[in-house]
């Protein structure tokens, strides 16, 4: 149907043009099926039918909900299969450990070797297949959802590496989590699915839609990891977005619910569960979940968790920075990349070895078992009651004959804290949410047990005895610490969905909010911390309640001394601008006097303009034309033939700064004698068209060269052209010989003095503009809303400055810390804003106005002046 | 301290100016306290101390969290007090009804009169005090949060009217809700609190901040109404926002949690509850909440609720439209405004009269009791078991000796459905959430009871018998129907928080999502429906998965034929533009040839320019000047004195289209003889300055006149000026006499031919610009993100069109229904977007370029041309 589609395309264009012309009347355009019938006569009906069926299917496949269901289904399967594999791995370790109970040394070997091998394999596999799969992935998703394209982060290779690497890493029993990586996995799954479905319809190509789908995928990732659809949606919003479109909300809910449902149904079908319930179901009493007088204890948990969370983020960052800074360690580790993971695993697993130090910290429990025991319904420490509490089943791990449960808990918390902070720096796919969650639960349990020991019969003394439920404290602690580390409130919702009980809602909310308040004032979130370490392009959040952001204005932070391109500039000016600035986008103004902003042009486009002006092709063409004018039409049009690689025709309007270097689109084949016909010589009629097309595409290779080389200098380009390389190749043709270097230089100087022809350059016709007195707060909002990385500051059409992400970042960090960028003094709010800015505007306008009013009589004396000039004084 | 602040102000201005000049160095500006010490010597220290204390307090009061705590506290108190008053009202009715059980007629009179009086009072009170308090308030809040200023919706009067009106309306026992009004009440509370706190510091003036606080207030409203902090935040986001700033999230959570906490603590202190628990606590079993095989039943509830919700919205709208359309009814009701509420109340309370028809629909239960019974743990209908179920306590209302519970439930649902739809149209403060919630619960209960009757021993047949829990179905039904009516998913979270159990999370989520899917495809949400009825300025949402929105472009929907103002136009042109268009904002272009967009100017500003040019003052001034040049300096500068009302100096840069008319800022006092000194004559030195200032403000009154009068025409202005009114007043001065009308006309014609001086007009220097090929989807996003109501379409600086909210609305509704505006055919996606648009841009650029290149040699022949021109063909 190749030709058919082409027909349709041109038909559509005509239709669109016609419609645009006749905007008044409303006849429906002829449907393409009618067109088909009209042109193809009798055999058409069945084709029409088939086509309509196909179109129906495509239109259905294009629906969002099909995509979301598929995404949810796939992710639920992945999550369930991974859980199954992880459980098997852990089972195997336990089995080995249990089977070798005759010899402690053998036991130790088995206990230590198994995770070391798994982690090393995971690190090596990830390193080889896709290093992008390392780490949590949430920081990268946050950056991608801001509109930045990160190469290779959403590919099949990364998907495979992340899934297998994560399974191995978690199967090792290290304190690592699956939640962050799952956000990344779900996003990759969405991207792949989107690419797969685009085979059926062109709808999946849209960039805005892809971003929306990625946002939904993040929700699915959390949702199917914890079987927590609501918490998943909220957590993914908090963690990845700055501004959230409420119309995307249902997408996340729909997909996450479906995914969580399938995830739990798989467990039922596998006979793990009798019916669909929560993942870590608790059974606290409903009548009297907690006493009002226990609230201070919950608040203490919240505040302590806030400090703990900040400490965790700090520790994690310091470990990474220490590893980087120590050059000897670093050099050694760079050589033996797998040594660091193996070493860390060795240390951690040695310390958790159950017959060794592990007996003081419940070392034999897996992460899941630990959580189950911590959320347990019973009170472990009972005082004053004769019958000693019996630790049954897996609870036994917390019991040590020669110490009590408080010591075990304290040791567990302290050890796990640094272990988790260390383990999450291993270069394998891993998250930190779950380890932190467990530590928080243990801390909550500790407080709860202490409270239970303090008030054995509960606090409430009216009528009934309501004992204290330490499990409830564990739930509160888990939510608070994980909320503090990630700077989210939605961990509260996640614990409700994980435990299946919402009766502790108020304590949980209070603790989470307090923990957030403390942690946010001390440290960035774990993900922001990683973003800073990895130096991803980000925009810091505005902090809580800093007033200065309302008083700092764009005019205080903008760069005033900007380089620009004028419409009537010469190539020499372009060259100079490229030399003098590193800006990625150059403003295009009407003229240096008026400074009216017309648009913005990319640096690479300017480079392309310059190099095409100075290109050897043009030089040769000039020479050839000279020769032509002398020799008449000695050269026929068939003397040069173009071979076109079809790739260029599929060039999509992607972000040029990040697209792959195009393969050289244009290859000049030497003028072939008639006895050796090239492959494409049959369609001679198309040559004129193709050569025309190629000529348009001719600037591409140079443009790309300029892109890859950030220090692209024209001198280098000139030097490269100085070599008579191409000219030598050209010698076989009947063309005049190459110029001598002095001639070339002269020609170039002459070329540089010509006026620039912007018609072949791509110009952004409506770059984003701000006004001088826009507040920092509003600027931040607009930048994060629209995902900008620069904006021009204009005043009535005139360009006066520019703000980039860099300035904004500096200003925000400056206004928060009081250092760095100069912020307006607090008194600035006293300044009468309207008066001063209106004045400035008026002045600017006046300049413009005066420029147009040279023939007008002087303003002071004329009747057109303001009253103030004429009022007698 | 009046003078002191002035000093500070000017000091700050100087400092700011100095800082702006010396951007390089960083000496800290002298603190104002130092300045104080320097200037005031010895008695300063204590003053400094006091000042610092005061400043510390102010800075603390300025913090967000203080505001949020106060807001939460106040709203919790309001909510609790209102609940208490409502409960008392309902108790009183019950007591009256119970006390008169000897005579049915008297009982009936009491049952009917009581609510009628209350509703009538509520309607009358609201009508008199603040008609804005009528209805739910959520549609208005949605509009306000979009950036539109609705007058009088956030005042103290409205607050009082809404609180008292709502208490009376709910106390009557009608099927009305308190949730929607509470969103409004909380917002008003926030606005008032903000205004109150601004007495302590200037920080509360910021508009962006106020919007953020209003968003938090909406969350508080829902949160303290249901004691549901999380659901409150989510519901308020879904209902009021299109784009949500995640940084506002914590504000909502913080305030709503605090509010819900206080709300429940008040109940504990009042001994209503033993501890903090959910509002409608359920006690379903936790082990096996529901069977996997019950899910189809839940799905059925969801789908049916979707249809039901759409029907409810439709019914509600039809009732309103019917009341409006029926002219006889309408005229009658307009005269007797209180008759309609009284009539509706009479009908509804007659039907619910317990000894009458009410016995078939549990008429004696209040809304709260109904919910408690519907969420009950037991199964009402048991078959095949000998012992009949005993209806104890309030459950008895559902039991009718001569019918069974199914009939009662069906009757209840049917009757309440239309009653609720009708009752919510009464002009009192009322919401529809709670009535719908109750109907949904009853429907769910009906399905649950049917399931329980169908499977008496549960579906699960493996080992244990798990009976079906009809109360769980009621919870699902309540969430689904209220979700369908409001188009929200967060009702799911609200029911979890209301019932204190989350075990039914998956059924609830599935039902809510299905209900939303059905309802959203049939009808707008209740709030959007009200927005349409009330014709508030809104932007419809983009529907689910309509692909066309990606293919329709701005160039398809924009208005091409726009009127503009050029920089070098004459007053006559302004006059013509004002005559020919109704646009509120006129683009200002450089010239008609270049069409370079410089800014936008408001219609009213243009009017002000024109009328100031033609103002009698100017005419007189001209005359006076003529006289002056003849008579020399006969008039001294003291002959005219200005009296300044201080209001003008506090003019903030508010939205000019909506600010209140300024009081005439300038009053000319007749030239006073020296024996009657005016009040302000002491400071003679300031007159020159003040008169200068006044002259600047002189255009204000006319400007305001133009604003209030939308059909402001220059002719009318001219006619008004034709009257020699002012000139008559002027006659006492030593000025030449008034012009004769022909003279005036001549003078005006002459004035109209002058070039416009824009220096006194306010120009928006950076109006929002779009590009021709921006998609409808992106345009919608940008409009709702930034709260725009118009945008100019430019192409490399040139103005080519304009899009307003109207066009956008038409296009969206057109693309959804296929009617109305002409949408691009589906084939448009085949069109090669890059090629065509780049071409258009290039053409536009060429025009500009050519304009500047007249001296340049023709492009086709020159060496600066593209390769395609020179390639031999």
Automatic annotation (TrEMBL), chains A, B:
Composition skew (Polar residues), residue ranges: 639-652
Classification lineage: Eukaryota, Metazoa, Chordata, Craniata, Vertebrata
Membrane disposition: Multi-pass membrane protein
Gene Ontology molecular-function annotations: voltage-gated chloride channel activity
Annotated Gene3D superfamilies: CBS-domain, Clc chloride channel
Keywords (A to Z) from UniProt: CBS domain, Chloride, Chloride channel, Ion channel, Ion transport, Membrane, Repeat, Transmembrane, Transmembrane helix, Transport
Keyword Membrane: yes
Primary localization: membrane
Short name of one Pfam family: Voltage_CLC
Transmembrane segments: 65-87, 108-130, 182-201, 213-237, 249-269, 295-317, 338-357, 405-426, 433-455
Region (Disordered): 639-658, 663-682, 851-873
Subcellular location: Membrane
Name the record gives this protein: CLCN2 protein
InterPro entries recorded: CBS_dom_sf (IPR046342), Cl-channel_core (IPR014743), Cl_channel_volt-gated (IPR050970), ClC (IPR001807)
PANTHER family: CHLORIDE CHANNEL PROTEIN 2
One cellular component (GO) term of this entry: plasma membrane
